[in-house]
């Protein structure tokens, strides 16, 4: 399926069937099985992974003051909320499998949509799976009493991570019901675990420190524009996932009502728990101690309740990252499925399993890429590549609202508040983030390399699917 072109060459709005989530004439369909709270769980479960447990140290290192540190999390949350509010409108008007891929295709055309799919294939999805599964593996080994930073256990990390990808791919191979059930269970566990740590810190830790760690709020030299941009990358890694629900829009029940509600509810709940978690960390540990702590939640819990606290946090992180891994394999393969259905990718990838009603070929392909990446690269390499590659396409997906609102037949039941300020803020923040990454000597060449890999998709498009026309 492809969008219809007007005589002037602009993308015209395709007619979307609200029940199937596909346009008339489309060849592949997936049944709508995901309700409101499962949709919220998909968003929360895809977002809360390793970031809130390991990003605070890096942020405090770059911005060593309570106010600068909180400012990064607040800006990151507002960034995600502006994006979620915009996608809430677009998704309610385009409730199709593929999410941002569909929004870019209908707003900007086939080449930008292909580039998004190429970036997902070559960098984004595999890097995401690799980074998340690596964190799961590290904590799993810690729970078993092994140090993942020492030989031979540093090699075991890769194998355990690959095994986790395979297990979660099996859940999702068996259909959206099984995948969303795993998502619901792990989301409740991870959110509850974070709440428990927060309550402990506020009830026990805060009275002991008397709030001394919150002052001075802005020590001299604790804020710099360049450092803020780099710290924001870490925060956005923690917030990433707010857009993943859109990828399974074609499988959400009553999508025109459910998608906006789930996107907004889920994003607000993530922002709230992240800000509270940082309050909890600072209630127990000083900025300097947070800077030196690569496992800040575990260190907080150890101070509060001793060794059992470390085990509790390790298990919580395991469940958290396992749920995020499951969410990534629930949502990400739908991009390749939608591309194949549009004949912008290998057509067998659009096959639907006759029994489980899942895009099983797309799931197996995505899992295979994740296993390959996790065997070859480190967490830091994977996480940085992911953020750099995804941000331009988030901006394009959000910016599609300006084109879609001009198209006939675009009648979303939800309209983004404060339009056009909200989407413009998101786009401006995206440009700032990319510009800062390109200008900073520490990240310049890695950023340029990732963007270069994405741009390789342009000649690839014209050598392959672009030659076939429509």
UniProtKB/TrEMBL annotation:
It is a multi-pass membrane protein. It is found in: Membrane. Pfam families: AA_permease_2 (PF13520). One of its GO terms (molecular function) is L-amino acid transmembrane transporter activity. Residues 1-29 are annotated as: Disordered. The chain crosses the membrane at residues 34-53, 73-92, 113-136, 156-176, 188-206, 226-250, 262-284, 304-325, 360-379, 385-404, 416-439, 445-464. Keywords: Membrane, Transmembrane, Transmembrane helix. One of its GO terms (cellular component) is membrane. Residues 1-18 have a biased composition (Low complexity). This is Amino acid transporter. It comes from Roseisolibacter agri.
């Amino acid at each position: 399926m492809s969008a219809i072109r007007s005589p002037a060459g602009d993308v015209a709005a395709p007619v979307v069937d609200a029940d199937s989530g596909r346009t008339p004439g489309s060849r592949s369909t997936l049944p709508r099985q995901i309700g409101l709270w499962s949709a919220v769980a998909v968003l929360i479960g895809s977002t809360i992974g390793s970031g809130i447990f390991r990003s605070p140290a890096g942020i405090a290192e770059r911005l060593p003051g309570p106010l600068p540190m909180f400012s990064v999390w607040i800006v990151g949350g507002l960034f995600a909320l502006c994006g979620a509010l915009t996608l809430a409108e677009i998704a309610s008007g385009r409730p199709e499998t593929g999410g941002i891929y569909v929004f870019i295709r209908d707003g900007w055309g086939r080449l930008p949509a292909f580039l998004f799919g190429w970036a997902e294939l070559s960098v984004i999805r595999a890097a995401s799976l690799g980074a998340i599964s690596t964190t799961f593996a590290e904590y799993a080994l810690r729970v078993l009493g092994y140090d993942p930073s020492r030989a031979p256990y540093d090699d075991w990390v890769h194998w355990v991570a690959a095994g986790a990808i395979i297990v979660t791919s099996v859940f999702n191979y068996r259909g959206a019901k099984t995948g969303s059930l795993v998502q619901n269970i792990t989301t409740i566990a991870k959110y509850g675990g974070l709440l428990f740590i927060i309550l402990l810190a506020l009830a026990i830790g805060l009275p002991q420190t008397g709030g001394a760690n919150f002052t001075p709020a802005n020590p001299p030299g604790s804020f710099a524009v360049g450092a803020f941009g780099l710290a924001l990358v870490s925060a956005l890694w923690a917030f990433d996932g707010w857009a993943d629900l859109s990828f399974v829009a074609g499988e959400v029940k009553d999508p025109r009502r459910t998608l906006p509600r789930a996107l907004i509810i889920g994003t607000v709940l993530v922002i709230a728990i992240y800000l509270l978690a940082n309050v909890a960390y600072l209630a127990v540990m000083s900025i300097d101690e947070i800077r030196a702590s690569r496992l800040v939640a575990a260190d907080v819990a150890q101070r509060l309740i001793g060794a059992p606290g470390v085990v509790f946090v390790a298990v919580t992180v395991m469940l958290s990252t396992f749920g995020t891994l499951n969410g990534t394999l629930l949502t990400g393969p739908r991009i390749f499925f939608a591309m194949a259905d549009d004949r912008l990718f290998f057509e067998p990838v659009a096959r639907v399993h006759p029994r489980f009603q899942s895009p099983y070929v797309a799931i197996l392909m995505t899992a295979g890429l994740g296993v390959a990446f996790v065997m070859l690269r480190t967490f830091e390499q994977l996480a940085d590549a992911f953020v750099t590659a995804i941000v331009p396409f988030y901006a394009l997906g959000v910016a599609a609202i300006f084109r879609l609102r001009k198209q006939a037949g675009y009648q979303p039941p939800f309209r983004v508040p404060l339009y056009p300020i909200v989407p413009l803020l998101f786009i401006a923040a995206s440009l700032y983030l990319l510009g800062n990454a390109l200008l900073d000597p520490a990240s310049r060449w890695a950023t340029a390399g990732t963007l270069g890999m994405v741009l390789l998709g342009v000649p690839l498009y014209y050598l392959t699917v672009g030659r076939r026309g429509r």
